[in-house]
Amino acid sequence: MIDYSVLKGKVAFVSGASGAIGTAISESLASAGVNLVISGSSQDKLLKLKDMLSGDVDVIVGDMSQQSEILRIIDEILLLGKIDILINCAGIFLQNTISNLDISEYNKVMNVNLNAPYLLSAALSKNMVKNKWGRIVNIGSASSYAGFKNTAIYCTSKHGMLGMSLAMHDELKEFGVRVYCISPSSTKGKMGLDTKGQDYSTFLDPKEVAEYVLFAISQDGNAMSQEIFIKRMYYR
Fold first, then answer.
1. Residue 131 CB: number of other CB atoms within 10 A?
2. What parts of the chain have a pLDDT lower than 70?
């Protein structure tokens, strides 16, 4: 049986909490006794999720596709007090050819998928370093390791997230802060439904992804699963 006691009473911020993976991670954290600050662009969805969760839950509504909103969200988080666990789960999956992708789409995807995780990590890791304990989880993708046609900007952002995670862990590990890039294959949810050319019935259950996240961050010894690539057993 896995011991999650190291997480009890900690405070986690989860971006993209109202998405399929974000909801599953929020539920798993709450079940382990973690208090939550959940964020997303839909207030209605966040409030519904809050009603489902145990423990203390704060809600921050914001659109991370704009840098000014990212900075506002960070200010609101800091007003609430220290964050022990950061889950960067917000993401945009955009499919378009390289020649048709315009700069506004590029900036939107990069802000949500890469710039927001970087800025959140930079701001919230300060207290983790001070307290000599912290967890930063960046939800990557199979696209962190591969490239697929018509998804160049998405793959760019996820490759960047993997590199960022590796560098951040090397920088922060001496202060007791562990940084993970957990990269699931196609997963059931809205983003999964938008994926073309694959059999949705074979996609991962978001709860399976959440279980990997909870297991990884609960480890408090010398072992460290810095990169976790969650593949599907069956593809169609």
1. 13
2. 1
Are 117 and 164 contacting, i.e. CB atoms less than 8 angstroms apart? yes
The helix (H) or strand (E) run that includes residue 164 is helix 152-172
- Alpha-carbon distance of 89 to 39, in angstroms, equals 10
Are 216 and 230 within 8 A, CB to CB?
no
Q: Tell me the one-letter amino acid at 160.
A: G
Domains of the chain, CATH where assigned: 5-230 (3.40.50.720)
Query: Residue 149, Cα to own-chain centre: how many angstroms?
Result: 24
Up-side HSE of residue 78: CA atoms within 13 Å toward CB?
15
Q: What span, in angstroms and rounded, lies between the C-alpha atoms of 114 and 117?
A: 5
Q: What is the pLDDT of residue 123?
A: 98
Are the CB atoms for 144 and 227 separated by under 8 Å? Answer: no
CA-nearest of 127, 57, 120 to 89 is: 120
